[in-house]
Structure formats: C-alpha cells, structure tokens
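note to self: the first set is below, dont mix up w the second
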Amino acid sequence: MATVTTTKKACAVNPLKMSQPLGAALAFLGLDKCMPLMHGSQGCTAFGLVLLVRHFRETIPLQTTAMNEVTTILGGMDNLEQAIVNIYNRAKPDIIGICSTGLTETKGDDVHGFLKLIRQAHPELSETALVYVPTPDYLGAFQDGWGKAVTAIVEALCEPVPKTAWQVNILPGCHLTVADIEEVREIVESFGLYPIIAPDLSGSLDGHIPETFLPTTLGGAKIAQIKQMGGSAATIAIGEQMRPAAEALEARTGVPYRLFDRLVGLAANDEFLAYLSELSSTPISPKYRRQRSQLVDAMLDGHFFFGGKKVAIGAEPDLLWQIGAWLGEMGCEIAAAVTTTHSTLLEKLPAAEVVIGDLEDLEKRAAGCDLLITHSHGRQAAQRLGIPFIKMGLPLFDRLGAAHQLSVGYRGTRDRVFELGNLFIENLPEHHADSWPLPGESHETVPQSEACH
C-alpha cells in the first residue's frame, strides 16, 4: 500500500499535469462530425490546440467563445450564442461539445440556462446535439476532464432501447492510444461481438488521409451509435476514470458494466478475455492463446533484466497504475511515482509513496533510478540525471507515431517487455580492457627456461 501525499509548493515547476478542459476536448474529438468548443479566453484554446497538433500531427478542430475582460464581467451568453451559431452555419456539425474553463467557472456562468435560451432563439439548432461539461482548469487534471465529458455525453444522448445480445459498449480511458483502442476492438470482435466504442479516437485521430476536407472531426463514434448504447448486453469500462460514465449509462439504460483498471500484463488480459468468452459463450481463439504463450515466453526471457530495477514514473493516475502495476509484476521497484490528481488506485500501487505533484518532484526522487517514464516534458530531467528515458503519455511531441504506441493485450504487453528489456540490456555495464588488470610491475616474470622445468 502506497502513501499518497500532495506537494504544498507555491507553484508548479515543470508541470506534469494538463487541464480538465483539454481532456474533455479530446474526448469530444473522439466523436464523428463534432466540434469541441471551449467557453473561455482565446489563449486557453490556443494552448490546447497547439499541444494536440504537436502530439497527433493532425488538424485539430477546436473553437473558442473568445471571452475578454468585459464579457467575463457581464456574462458570456452572447459570446456562447454567437460561437454556436457561427459553428452551425459554417461547419454543420452533428454535435458541439462545450467545455467550460477556469475563467467562466469563476464568473459562474449558467451555461445550462444559456443553452435553453439559445435553442429557443435558434430553432435551426434542433437537430444539433449541444453537450456541456463543466471543467474548471483549477481543479482536477486531464483524465478528470475526459471522464466528465464521457459522462456528459452518456447523460445527454443515451436512452433505453431494445436489447441486442451480441452488442457491447466500450468506454476507453484517455490513457489508451489509438493503437490500444484498435487492439481492444479486434479482441472483442474475435468473440463475435459488435463493439460500440465511445469516444473512439481510432476513427478520428489515427492519421488517415481524408477524401475531402471537413471542418469537423473526421471519424469516431457516431451519434446514432451512441444512442444505441442503451441496447447493449454489457458495458466494458477501461480505467478507473470511466467508472462514473459506466454508472451513468447503467442508471439511464440498465446496461450492466464491468470495469477493467488496466489491460497490460498477463493476469489482466487473462481476466479480460475470460470475461469476453463468458459474455459471448465463445471459446478464446487459438490466435490469442498463441499470443499469450508468446507473452509468457517474453516474460521468461526478460525477467533477468527487469528484476530489481528501480523505475521512476510520472503520469496521469490510470496510466501510472497501468505501467506501475505491470512493472511491479515484472520484478521492478517503483522508486518514484508522481501523478496529477487523486484516484482510488493510487494507494494500491506497489510503491512506498505516490506524490501528487510536478516533474520537479519526479526529478528529485528519480536520482539513482535505472529508468524514467513520463511524457516528452521529462526529457530534460532524464538528461540531467543521466538515466534511460521511455516516453509514455501525452504529449509526445518529439516522436513520430505517438498515437500508434501499443501497450494493451497480450501483443502490446509482449512488445513493451521487449522495448524496456532491450533498454535495460543496452545500459548494462560493458567489459573493457581494464576489467581484468594485468599483474603489476612488482610481480617478477618467470623466465621461459624455468617455466619449462
């Protein structure tokens, strides 16, 4: 059991966390024909836009209500109304996802009331879904915003519909990459099940070239699919951050849920596939039995190099749990663990302490470790400490294919074993000429004639 502490510094130094509005905006980007809208100043949206573009290397549709000093004091309804109407006229989205920011939350804008008045004044918006999620950036962190946005989507769009036995809902956390979501879909479909994944970044931010330009998102979960989630046989929530959304869906539609806190590691994937087999009454395919055997072999090969290694991790709670719990199973010591916000999983982490802090806290605790794991902003700390560095999380702006890093499933876990194991091997001390010193000058050399006798 880990002890969870929160730093009390006056300011964050080299921040680890990102804000709730950005997490909510990314969730909305996983919906088809959606336009995320940040209700706040232009700077809030500009920062998030640049960060997401650098990570995904794709065009990111993201708009702002452009609040200023005057509109903040007088109220933001006019700005919100103008932004929604302009987006509707120019982009014709199926859904507009509205995320509040610290500015408008501090003012106390009644956005739910604003939206009712805007709909009354603009009947042309009747076919456009308007989903609002309160995400003040002075509270919580990135995964909190994602979870709140998915909960708001469920509460706004899902209703009870006739049940379909082979249909299942997948609620992925923000710690899953595009490749992770694609792997989960492939596994679920192998049991003859039809998954509805929401949000689905693998449809919108997988790096495909569109046939034509669209000002909204270019794929993802469709509104019609989300409205059918109430007819599924079960909901699979991946990550503790998705529990509120799964509970909301169950309360509204009666669809039971099963939460998997991670899908990295042998036991975690055994549990996942066993559940799918039970749900579908279908045996696990030989393909995944083979992949499981490959993972077991990889773990046998790699445990010599993982055992006893000290690792420092800085990540959002669900990603920290996913990496830390798996590395603990591989025999590593989690010597430093720093995260961004509270979670019920933190106390379960196989570490002495989990700090809710920043990258400065991580750097101080990572001295003497064998590996540092965090996003791209940790590169300077790794360089100063002189230790190997693996980039995970978001943003990863100095690597190509960040969205296609695979970690989940037997195959993803196997590849991670190889990646980290090879890094440990590369940093093993090499023998050199001085490893076996020759006798000193005081040692008398035995003459060859005497040695013969």
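second set (the one i keep forgetting abt)
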Amino acid sequence: MKTIAYSVLTGVMALSAVCAKQDRPNILFIMTDDQAAWTTGYSGNKQAMTPALDSFREEAASLPNTFVNSPVCSPSRATLMTSRYPSEVKIMEYSHNPLSPEFETWPRLLQKNGYHTGLIGKWHLGGGESHPTKLGYDYFMGLLGGGCSPVNPPLEVDGKKIKVKGFMLDILTEDAMKFIENRPKDKPFMLSLHYRAPHGAYLPVRDEIWDKVKDKAYALPDFPKLKPNLEKMMRGYLASVSHYDWNFGRLMKKLDELGLRENTVVIVTSDHGYNIGHHGATHKGNGDWGSELPRSYHHKNLDKLPGKKMPNMWDTSLSPPHLIRWPETVKPNSTIRQEINFIDFFPTLCAMAGTQIPQGTVVRGKSFLPLLDGSQGDEEWNNPLLIQHDTHLTYVLRGYRTKKWKIVTSYSHNYGFLYDLEKDPGETKNLYENPEYKQVRERLTKEMESKMKAVGDPLFLPGEYPFTKKRKKK
C-alpha cells in the first residue's frame, strides 16, 4: 500500500500544477517493437540513419536510463498497461496468457476521464475479453498477435481481419494520421501507436531506404568471434529502423499541419531493447548466442544450457529509446538521467492527463512527471528496477538493478550475473562468482528477493511454481 499511496499522491500533486498551466494535453504514445536504445543517430550510432528522430531529440527530453521490467514483448507490454509486474498479470513470456480485464489500465482511466482513445498497431495481449476495445481503447486497428510480414500484413480493420496492401509501417502511420485528423474536436485524444518494426522480419523496406544501405558495410559490436551472418542482420535491422524514422517524420509534420504541436505530448519508446552481437548475443532477453566462443565466456555453467539459447537481462536488452516532447513543460534538448521503470508510465500518463487513479488501485510504479517539469531533483529520486522473465517458460530469471549494481539470478539453472555499473557500464566483467564480491551479491540478492516477496512473486509462494516445472528449489 505504501507504493500505491506514493504514486497517487505524487500524481495528484503533479497534475494540479499541469492543469493550472494549460488544458489537458493530447497524448501520442509511440512504441516500436524490439528497438534498442543504440539504434539512433542521436545516441551516437554513426551507422544509424534516423534524421527525423535526431531532429525530434533536439525538441524533447531524453531519458536514457529508462528500463523495461521484462526484456520480451508481451510481459513488457503488460507492465506498461497495468503498472503491475509480469508475475502479477501471469504473463512471463511472449504470447503466454492474455491480459485479464480484471487489471486496471491507464487507457481505460483516460477513456473514463473524457479522452478519445485509440490503439493502432501491435497489441500482443490477447483478444476476446482482452481485446483493446475492452481495456480502454475506443478504436483499434492493427495486429492482435505478435508478428507478421512487414508488407501486405493481415490486420484487424473495423472488427474484421483482412490483408492490407502496402508496408505495415506506412499503413499504420496513415491510419494514425486519419485518427488524429478525424478526432472529436470537443475532447482531447490519446493515441497509442504501436509499430511492429523493427521486429524481424526486418525486410523489405521502401526502395529509397534500401538503396542507401544494401551495399553498405556495417560494423558489429566489439565482441570476439561474432558469427559472420550478423552483419546482414545489422543491415536489415537498421534499415527497418530507418523506415520507421521516415514515417515518424511524416507523423510529426502532420501534427504541425493540424496545429497540434503545442498541446500534444509525444512519447517515443519501444517495448524493450535488442542485441546484434552485443555481449555475444542476438535478439532480446530470450535470444540466442551469436559468437563462435562458448557461452561460458560469461558464466561457467551457461554451456550446460541446451541448444544455443542465451537468456539474459543485459542493459542492451532492457533499454529502449525514450524521448518526450511537451512544449512549455519539458525543457527541449534536455537529458533526464534518473532511472525510469516501465511500470512508471501508468501513473505518469494519468498525471499528464489530469486523471486521478482510483483509491485501491494497485500501482507498482511512481510518476516521473516531477522529473519532467523540474519540480523534483536527482537527490530525491531512488527507483531500483525489478526484472522478471521466464525464457520460453523454461529459464526462470530475476534481476535487480540500482544505480551502481545489477544482479541477475537464474532460479531454474545454476548461473548468474553481477555487474558494477559505475566501473563497468558496458557489463563486460561478471563478478557473480568472484569471492571478493560475495557480500555484495548476498546483499543484492536479499534486496531483490525482498522486493519479489513484496509483489507476490510465486517463486516465494507455497506450492508448485505455476509458469514452469523447471524450478530450482531454494
């Protein structure tokens, strides 16, 4: 209850200040799929071609220490919607379970508070009673499942599944522009635009984009003996990001044409990060091993795992891009370095929208609006990250991240990770088995497990673990 009270109180205080300055803003929440923080030009990646995002960054605040609470699609999206942990909503892997309507969502609260709401794009949290229109959205067009072709995709349109001709990125953008243009003029709008890109398959993309990259050589991360196919993977992945960037630019131009820039909050993020050779891995938290070296490079017991899976919680898997533009509230071209969790979006968006969270609603996150408007300083902010993921419902991982330390422990297999983030921000030296750091590991494990117990993680509840039988008894 302490978390709930804090979130609601800070949200009410922040929204009072906002509402005194201006009418409730429109909210455009843009979320890509599988896009890592390292994929943009403004992040320092010289191989990325993202001119629209780079320009937007100069008008927005960047929040580079934003981390998801699970490094895979469905669990991360569920935490975003509910401000609850994956184990609470019983979604521990992609396409695991639908999101139950028993959980409150921030779109539903905004809808009840007079917002015209829409979701265009990827949902990945179920249909039927878990359909977006049952959980807070007036309008839905897109993909209920997890993946499809980036061209001529099968989408739900007006309640029916049909094949729509064209690039999915272009189709979703054009529908978003129509939604905004045709919105009711007597109420604010909130649009969730959930692109499927740059999730694989990355290609095809528009010819004018592909022509710029098809013959280009791409450098890979500095990790030994990466497999040669990763350069092709990098080329396709960054081409997909560039195609998204082209559409992002079109959408921002439409906002300006409609005179909506000044009173529209634009949030840009992704559902988690991604690896193409980073740490020797590929894909996300449930990814594969992409090096000719053995996986024991990271921990002696990793080679005992079957196949080439590389379950992980590195920052590259957890960190998406995160930009927020809100004229006259958020300082342009600023950087907010405090740690943000994905569970924090729920109370923050409610605060932005002047929407009170009903008493008794369980909210695990806390509003970071005071960081955006400058009313709270760095010294007052403490926001450790709890991470949950059961890779393929087989590898049970939990992680805990503070400003200085990160610990990741396998509760199904005998391995773990410990990093000193101040001395080793790239997470290159695993200290988990180092006897000099035994007390640090034990202290962080105690803190992590205390948090796990507080949110009812079933690893610490009586009976068999509900998500997989491959559980190592403590």
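remember for set 2: Residues 1-22, 470-474 have pLDDT under 50 and may be disordered.
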